[in-house]
Structure formats: structure tokens, C-alpha cells
Amino acid sequence: MISEIQSYPSSKAVDVLVIGGGGAGLAAAIEAAVHGAQVLLIEKGPALGGSTGWSVGSFTASQTKYQMRRGIADSSDAHGEDLVEMNGCVRPESEPELRSFLVANSPATLDWLQNLGVEFVGPFEEPPHRVARMHNVIPGSNAYVQRLELEARRLGVEILCNTSALSLLCHDVSVCGANLFCEGRDFRLKAGAVILTTGDLSANPNALGQALKNIGPGLASVNRLATGDGHKIAMQVGAAISQDIIAKPTIRFVPTSSSPILRRMPTFPFLTKLMRLGFELLPMSVIRPLLLRFLGSVLQPHPAIFETGAILINRDGELFCDSPTKLATELTHQPEGLGYIIFDEKVTQHFSKWPHYLSTAPGLGYIYISDLCHYRPDVCRTADTIRGLASEIGIEPEKLDEAIGAHNQKQKLRGYGQILVPPFVALGPVRSFLVLTDGGLKVDPQMRVKKTGGGIISGLFAAGAVGQGDLLLQGHGHHLAWAFTSGREAGAQAADYALSKSDF
Ligand SMILES: Cc1cc2nc3c(=O)[nH]c(=O)nc-3n(C[C@H](O)[C@H](O)[C@H](O)COP(=O)(O)OP(=O)(O)OC[C@H]3O[C@@H](n4cnc5c(N)ncnc54)[C@H](O)[C@@H]3O)c2cc1C
Description:
Layout: H1 2-6, E1 11-19, H2 23-34, E2 39-42, H3 50-54, E3 58-60, H4 65-69, H5 76-87, H6 96-115, E4 119-124, E5 134-138, H7 142-154, E6 158-160, E7 163-171, E8 174-182, E9 185-196, E10 220-221, H8 229-236, E11 246-247, E12 250-253, H9 261-264, H10 269-281, H11 284-292, E13 311-314, H12 327-331, E14 339-343, H13 345-350, E15 359-361, E16 365-367, H14 369-375, E17 380-383, H15 386-392, H16 397-414, E18 424-434, E19 437-438, E20 448-450, E21 456-462, H17 478-500
Parallel strand pairs: 1-2, 1-9, 2-6, 9-21, 10-18
Antiparallel strand pairs: 3-5, 4-5, 7-8, 8-9, 11-19, 12-18, 13-14, 14-18, 15-16, 17-18, 20-21
Helix pairs in contact: 2-7, 2-17, 5-6, 6-17, 15-16
The protein binds flavin-adenine dinucleotide.
Flavin-adenine dinucleotide is lined by residues 19-25, 42-45, 49-52, 54-58, 164-165, 197-199, 222-223, 225-226, 229, 298, 435-436, 464-465, 476-480, 483.
């Protein structure tokens, strides 16, 4: 890769420059190439993937072949209505045009991914969706990255990793390229059109000056390259941006130091097709144990667990907050930002079958507490006494005993939620992660970036998280659906725009 970069000319022109090599960027590069453009995709990390490669991999869509095979009747209108309901009172009616675009086009994107060799299982239910719509990629989200990279290379897309975009080049009122940086060298790259697909702000949520409130030093991000570069460089050329970046920390298991096996598994279509057939034909009792062995660990325990009797303690065995809605924020102020979720057998039983799941999981849809305890003993410890549990997780037994005693006393007065019935369970360590942020550059349904004060910025397109405007995508699977669907559209539009110009 380094030699590839060193031999790259210090100034060059391409039809379409795609900045950011996650799901949206790869989809954009492929579609731009299919539309006849010469495409360069740059990625600032050492490899393609971004948050897309870290994700669980759920993709939510209606009217899919997977739904039809299961006899599920659905429509994009119904999907749009359910998405509004999922967004709830946060931002229910924002960006109706983009929402309609998403629900109308995500089924075709799912087909497109499948034609490129990406396989799914499901669909799975997720209320308040009225029917099952969540499709989970197999064996994991690396399938998106591997299959799309292969297709992009097959179509002649040039890919440069370890290369960052620093700013955009403008001529008159149009964007016509970018200043790039790689291995100590600057490039001035001219392009007929530029597509920003640089992801979100989760590694730098304060980048735009809209500070996160009450967050302590313990907040972590999953994708450290998600620093909002595209947001910033587009704003420098007058792009309009959402005035309300939503950044909500969630409690997740701390990833193991080595990448989970699923991220390294081969994704050859014959293998994933076989896996899908296995899912469809074999009993779940055979399939689940197989996939559970490969569980990665950036999983999110469902927040409802804290409303059903579980508590969160810090690394020193202390209770620090009894409001379920504030736990993720308060955890960022605790020593090393680390905690454990503690509960008893009543909670284990409650989260043992649908609809009370512990977490979504790659390939499986949902997992339950018993799955985790069986297959991930590194993040799930059990004991018959509280003191025994404390020893299992390296906390002073007296301290945990004292904390649980105080908790039980309080709950006794309330009449529910005591931790009394063995075996007792500790899940963790967990910490607060900012997995994603919602809010990006304002775009129209052709993914053209809008200007502050009205109109569009010629030559500039945005897709995926950076091109999300005020569109809110609550629930599982809408962010990836948006990344790939908007990426494809941006690629097609940017190619048409670039190829219609003769003078760049
Ligand atoms: C742990 C986790 C689980 C998730 N699970 C799901 C899920 O199951 N379903 C779902 O729908 N969503 C999920 N999400 C959210 C989803 O993954 C993202 O919203 C989506 O992948 C965003 O895609 P993207 O292409 O816009 O950005 P990314 O995939 O993040 O790609 C952006 C790329 O741009 C690169 N880049 C940034 N700045 C520059 C620059 N200046 N120059 C060059 N390159 C640059 C980055 O390095 C990165 O590779 C999850 C996210 C995480 C972190």
C-alpha cells in the first residue's frame, strides 16, 4: 500500500473523488464506476470499513425477498410510518423527503447487496415495527466491506488507504477537488465531483461546538476515526448542517483486545449462502450454538434490564446512580469508566425469551442472558453468593455485599427489584460508548449538499452518516440501510454530474 501511495502523482484529476471508505463510500464508488466514471476512493485509516465494519450488521427494510419467502406482506408506507413512531417525540417529522427516499429504496439496496454476495438471515421482529423487517448480515459486518471492496476493485475503482481529505477545492461556486494528505505528502486532487462519506462524529462529538452535556472522561468511541472531518470541511465551503447533533452514550461490553472471530471470517458467497440455507433448513437448536461461539463483544445490553431489577456498579463495587436513564452518562464519571451489571435469577429468567432479549447479535438477530453466560464466560460471571460473585469479578466481597444490601433495603420499601435469588450474575466489564451520532450535512434526495441560506453546492455530494441532515434513524438497522442506499444514490448522481461537464 505504501509503495502504491508513493507512486501516486502529486496532482491528478479524476471524475469522482469519494472521501471515506465505509459502507456509504464503497456503495458510492461502485455506483459511480457503474455509471461510467473514473473513481478514486480515499480512506484515512489503514484499511476500509469504518463504523460499517464495526457494526452488528442489521439492515432494516420492507418488501424484501426475505420477507416474501416468509409470507410477510409489507409496504414502504407502513415502514415509513413505523419509523416515525420509532423516532418518537425526539424528531418524528424531520426530513420527510429523505425518510421516504430511504424506505422506498432500501429494498432495492438489500437486493443489490445480495447480488454482490452479501447474505442475510431473518427478517427479525423489532416492535414497534408492525412486521419483521430486520435483516442480519452473515457471518458479520465484514461481509459488507469485503464484498463491496472486491466489487469496487473489479470495476476499476482506485483505492488509497492512509489518505485523508483536509479541505475542499473550489472553482467559482463549484467544488472541484480536494486537498489530501498521505504519509507526509500533500496532494491537490482535481475531481469532477466530490462525495463525502466520512461517517459520523462519535469519536469527537464536540467537534462542531455543540458540546455533549455532563459527560465525564470515561466516554469511549468504537470507531476512533469518526471525527467529523467531512462535516467540518463541507461547512468551510458553506454547507448547511443539522443544528442538533444527537449523541447518546450507550452501555456496551468492552471489546476484547483481539478482533472477534466473526470480523476475520471469510465471506465467500458459497459459504454465506450455505450458512443462510443452514439457517432456513436446520432447527434453531442446531444453528444458534454454532453462531453463538463467534459472538463479538461490542454488544449492547438492552437498557430495559435496568428497569427489571438489574443494577450497575462501578469497578470498585459501588452503586453510583439509581436512575436507569442517567446510567450511561454517570458511568463516564466513574473510575476508568468501567462498571458491571449485577442481577439475580429473576432477571435471568425474564430475559430468557422473546420479546425480552439481552442484545442484538450478528447473524442471530437476538441473544438472551443464558446465551451470553454459556458462550461468553469472559463477560458473564455467576455465583451462588454475592461475595462469591465479587471474587469472580475482582471486587472486594465486603464492598459488593454492602452495596447490594443497601440496594435491597431501598427496594424493599418500594416493594420490588431486590437482588435475592441465586445464582447471581455479573455482566461486564461495560463502559459507556458513543457508538454513533445522528445529524449531518443537509442534502436533497439526490444527495447534493445544500448551502446555508438555500440552494445547493455544485459538485458536492454527501452520503451515509455525514449526509444525514436532520434525518433520525432510531431502531436497529436503519443506519446501515441509509449508508448503502444514500451512498448508491450519491455515486450515481455524482457520476452523471461529473460526466456532464467537460471543463474540469
Ligand atoms: C458497534 C456498532 C454497531 C452498529 N450496529 C449497527 C447495526 O447493526 N445496524 C445499523 O444500521 N447501524 C449500526 N451501526 C451504525 C452504522 O454502522 C453506521 O451508522 C454506518 O456504518 C455509517 O456508515 P458510513 O459509511 O456513513 O460511515 P463509516 O462506515 O464510519 O465510514 C466512514 C469512513 O470515512 C473515513 N474517513 C473519515 N474522515 C476521513 C477523511 N478526512 N479522509 C478520508 N477518510 C475519512 C473513516 O475512517 C471511515 O472509514 C453500528 C455502529 C457501531 C459503531
